[in-house]
Amino acid sequence: MDRIRKALLGGHPLVYVLTWEEPRIERLAQHLAKTFYGAPCAYGIWTVVEGLVVDGRPVPDTQDPLKALEAILAAQGKGFYLMKDFPTAGRPEIVRRLRDLYRALKDRGRHVLLVSPRLAIPEEAKKEIYVVEYELPDDNEIAKILDAHLRRRLNLSISEPEMRRLALAMRGLTADEVGHVVSKVFSTRKTFDEAGFLEILGEKEQMSRKEGVLEFVPPRFSLEDIGGYAVLKTWLQKRQSLFSKDALDAGIPIPKGILLMGISGCGKSLCVKTISTLWNLPLFRLDMNAVFGTDNPEMTFLRALRSVESVSPAVLWIDEIEMGVGGYREGGDASMSRIFSGFLTWMQEKSALVFVAATANRIHLLPAEIIRKGRFDQVFFVDLPNEEERKQIFAIHLKKNKCDVARFDLVFLAKATNGWNGAEIEQAVVSAVVDAYAESRSITEDDLYRMIAATVPLAVTMEEQIKQIRSWAHERALNASTS
Ligand SMILES: Nc1ncnc2c1ncn2[C@@H]1O[C@H](COP(=O)(O)OP(=O)(O)OP(=O)(O)O)[C@@H](O)[C@H]1O
Ligand SMILES: [Mg+2]
Fold first, then answer.
1. Whose CA is nearest to atom 18 of ligand 1?
2. Helices (H) and strands (E) in the chain — how many of each?
3. Is the CB of 269 within 6 Å of ligand 1?
């Protein structure tokens, strides 16, 4: 709101507000028309359907944006005019009129606010249009909205820490969405409990899915779900409280990010999912495939990075980062290399409060610049689990499947699965459980051995590649499981 005000105070007649929150801008413009110049002035609103409506009175024949601009140009006195989804594509005469409007209205107290969720400014009018990105509500604003809904409307009382937890869970939603989610989740319950919290996360997941390239990942996994990786776990635990208010106030340097690379199925993605739980930060996954599926991958990518900044502190997970930056080295297409350099710049300049967790499989595709010191705090190599780690992984997945771990000889199981990755161990346990269930009995060690004997692990079929990955990683990365 301050940025919009400043632009108006600076006399800018044309302000482009990039936002999803149309209703809030509408209220703002209405408020400005009443108060900005001391005495009320004109308040107009234009849509392609209704045309221009000034102070409640439609101006005839103004559905065409060109006509609407002309009507604003011809109006008298001061005023605020809000134009929704203003179209300029393929209409040079509109661009011309916008530029005329700029000159004619400058310092006259008549302002046009163009509101849209997409940035689409014609090249020719870039100098005349002042762009404000209207950010999503911050924690304080969210807390206010929650307060209004919960305490006043639904008559629920919530403790301060619970309120903060709720506000954190709501980050990244628009003000309206916060209201909708709260009404929906709390319409059937009278207290705030764990189930309510999970439901909110679920709702949020639904909403962020609409965004396309960014996906909110709910905190469902913790460090106890990972077998092995002692070094990586310690690294993460040490930094657990760096995003807390105390640490931030004390100015302790905040980590920028980590890169996990290594063999498929060894739990790289799983490790990333536990960070948000451990650090109590929201996690967003950036889908590079979806980024490349849009008309303008560069723009989509940078917007996604910025929208994560707007919900920081947060963890940004870039899965299979080599997809996005790999083509660079092989000469790939131009937009890929621009994305890559955009990413490096962003890594350098980004708000400190976005922690990047990137994962990569095909590490030979990664350009050297990305691994160079300074971009990521640490590059970890995730290898096939050793015997002790396989024991842990068996225990984790047996427990997950409600089996009595004490009835299994984990040492033998671990020995029998030399060269297996975590995903394969999980699969063996799951198939054994399903088989046993089909025969209405509980799972035995024999079920597991049958599965083990029937499986050819990836490490056998990909022996050469794994050797290569290891020797590559040896000099460049820190082993995640042994120091
Ligand atoms: N160390 C581990 N401890 C417990 N479970 C594991 C471990 N490694 C893998 N798993 C199981 O295997 C599943 C798949 O692993 P995950 O997707 O995290 O591997 P990945 O390294 O990201 O693989 P990819 O490179 O193919 O994306 C996990 O969800 C988990 O259930
Ligand atoms: Mg993965």
1. 267
2. 22, 14
3. yes
Which of 175, 173, 169 lies closest to 141 in space, CA to CA?
175
Q: How far is the CA of 274 from the centre of ligand 1 (A)?
A: 12
Determine the atom of ligand 1 nearest the C-alpha atom of 396.
4
Name which of 65, 9, 62, 58 is nearest 32 in CA terms: 9
> What atom in ligand 1 is closest to the CA of residue 320?
27
Please state the separation of Cα 309 from the chain's center in Å: 9
pLDDT digit string, tens, across residues 381-407: 999 999 999 999 999 999 999 999 999
Q: Whose CA is nearest to atom 16 of ligand 1?
A: 267
Interval between CA 90 and ligand 1 midpoint (Å): 49
**Fold held by 387-461:** Helicase, Ruva Protein; domain 3 (1.10.8)
Note if the bond before 58 is cis, omega within 30 degrees: no
Contact between residue 200 and residue 166 where contact means Cβ atoms under 8 Å apart: yes
Q: What are phi and psi of 133, to 5 degrees?
A: -95, 120
Q: Is 426 in the pocket of ligand 1 (CB under 6 A)?
A: yes
User: What's the pLDDT band for 253 if we cut at 50, 70, 90?
Assistant: confident
- CATH code of the domain made up of 139-210: 1.10.8
Superfamily for domain range 223-382: P-loop containing nucleotide triphosphate hydrolases (3.40.50.300)
**CB under 8 Å, gap of 24 or more: what pairs does 63-69 form?**
65/91, 65/94, 66/91, 66/93, 66/94, 66/97, 69/94, 69/97, 69/98, 69/101, 69/112
Instruction: Look up the pTM and report it.
Output: 0.66
